[in-house]
Design brief:
This protein has about 110 residues and is mainly α. It contains 5 helices and no strands.
């Protein structure tokens, strides 16, 4: 009888662990897809509106440094470009990192 309970508990644990892992994967996929959609929208707005602007083009090196260092290096040209973008497109709700990545795609 004890062996049957042990096997039942092990089977129940395996099923529960599998369901938990599947839920985690589905939740992670949903979050990643939502972030990607936000990033894609930001990139589309920035790249289509500002692709020929000198302030934005001059900020590409600073944007690369910003992205590569996870925001530790913030160059003057990048700050100028971020201010310009936010002034020209106040409806755009994007983080500095999203805007820096969008600048890099131009």
């Amino acid at each position: 009888m004890s062996r049957l309970r042990l096997l039942s508990a092990a089977a129940l644990f395996a099923v529960a662990a599998n369901a938990h892992a599947s839920s985690f994967i589905a939740t992670t996929d949903a979050v990643v897809n939502a972030l990607k959609a936000t990033s894609d929208a930001t990139t589309d707005v920035v790249s289509s509106s500002f692709k020929d602007h000198k302030i934005i083009l001059a900020a590409r090196d600073d944007a690369a440094s910003f992205v590569a260092t996870d925001g530790a290096i913030r160059g003057v040209k990048l700050e100028s470009a971020l201010d310009y973008i936010r002034h020209q497109a106040p409806q755009l709700n994007a983080t500095d990192a999203q805007l820096a990545q969008a600048i890099l795609t131009i």
